[in-house]
Amino acid sequence: MTNEAGTAQAKILVGEDNPINTLVLKKMLEKMGHHVTVADDGKEVIEAALRESFDFIFMDIHMPVINGLDAARAIKERSAPGKCPRIVAVTANALKGDREKCLAAGMDDYVSKPVKRDVISHILGQYMGKAV
């Protein structure tokens, strides 16, 4: 599916418990032409990911109920073969080793807050095969 600009449109789940961060990322992705669904905690992210088919999940690693690392592991374990969305950590953690922890939990990529449009666009483009 493509958006009005003719670029690929993705179905994206945003997992974030901070309303401001959620709004910023949601609006950014929507302006890029993507369809966005929001979940407020790790349990909701897992439930949504197993209920619906998403291309990407952008998820904070520090969320209530179930943290993002455990949510990523659960999604990877429970998804049907070939049906798991790309999971991108979105976090304020920028310490050495944080990226590695996210990747070890099954996340596909890592973005530091505050999120920047060009970084998000690059990640989406790299997995979708073109600029978005």
UniProtKB/TrEMBL annotation:
Response regulatory domain sequence ranges: 11-128
Keyword hit for Phosphoprotein: yes
SUPFAM superfamilies assigned: CheY-like
Source taxon at top rank: Bacteria
CDD domains according to UniProt: REC_hyHK_CKI1_RcsC-like (cd17546)
PTM-bearing positions, type 4-aspartylphosphate: D60
Biological process according to GO: phosphorelay signal transduction system
Record protein name field: Response regulator
Organism of provenance: Cohnella ginsengisoli
Organism ancestry: Bacteria, Bacillati, Bacillota, Bacilli, Bacillales
